[in-house]
Structure formats: structure tokens, C-alpha cells
Amino acid sequence: MRDGNFYGVGFVIHGNPMKPTPFSETVRTALIEEGKGRFTAVHKHGVYVTIPGDFFGTHIDGRIRAQYADIVGMTLYPEVEMAIQLDLHYGCAAIPVDNNLDASHEDSTIKNMIELSDVVPAYVRGVIERLRPLAANPPKLEQLMGNIIPANHRGLTKIKNAFLRENARKLIERYCK
Predict the structure, then answer these.
(1) pTM of the model
(2) CATH number of the domain at 17-146, please?
């Protein structure tokens, strides 16, 4: 995502993923509240490091990451930037199954995944129920407030994808008036 605007030519969003966080507070709260009582611990804050999914790294890589990361995963970015640019509420529920430093899938990892096989789907269903009202009337994303450069009609016609062109028009209407 860092190499260009999601919309391409004709429309600019300077979405601020750090304002206040890259995540929707509404989704974050639902994830935390639903996790209470389902999991041994629910952490409200943490540092997540995204690594390529096809390369786990060495034990030394793991030790280095452990110095500054609370959790390492294979997804989350660029998804969070795309969600912001599409005006979608987004959150992260990271459920660790592998606590070693080299991300090998040894027996304990498989055992942890089996133990969570009933808990995680129930958790996701609970989060969805908590967020149903959000679908009908989502609040504005703080990350987009003041960060959209409106385009005139001619600028929007330069967006080749019809869905993105219509979404850009809706963003201007929602955030720039």
C-alpha cells in the first residue's frame, strides 16, 4: 500500500493509520468485550509485527522480533490501510497458538489449534452479533477526518474501477461536507 494510492489517479486520501490507531474503536471494543470469559487473557494493547507468510524466519529472527513485538503474524498489513481507504471499520483479534521464537508448527501448536477449534468460532459469532448495529449506521472513521482531498467530477472519472469511483464519491459526500 505504501507505494501508491488505493484509488489511483483522480482521488487522494491521506488516511492516517495512527489517528488514534489503525483500528476502529467500535470494533476494538467489541473484540475485547467478547473475548472476556472466553480466553485466559485479553490484552487491550500490543505491538504487532507482520512478516511474510511464506517465510517464518530463524530462531535469531524470532529473538530480535521479541525485543520489540508482543505478537508476530502473517496478516494485518496492508489490509488495515485498505480498510481505512474504503471507510471500513477494522480490528484485530490476534489469538496466539505458537509461543516459540521460530514459528515452527510443532505438536504444541497443533494441540493449541485443536483446543481453540470450538472457542474461536463462538468468539467470532459473538463479535458479529455485537457489531450488527454498526452495519446499519457506522460512525465516521477518525482516521479519515480531514484527510480526504476532494476531487471534482472530472477527477473522479479518472478512477477506472466503477466500485472505487462510486466509493470515492461517497467518501467526499460523507467526509467533506
Answers:
(1) 0.81
(2) 3.40.50.1580
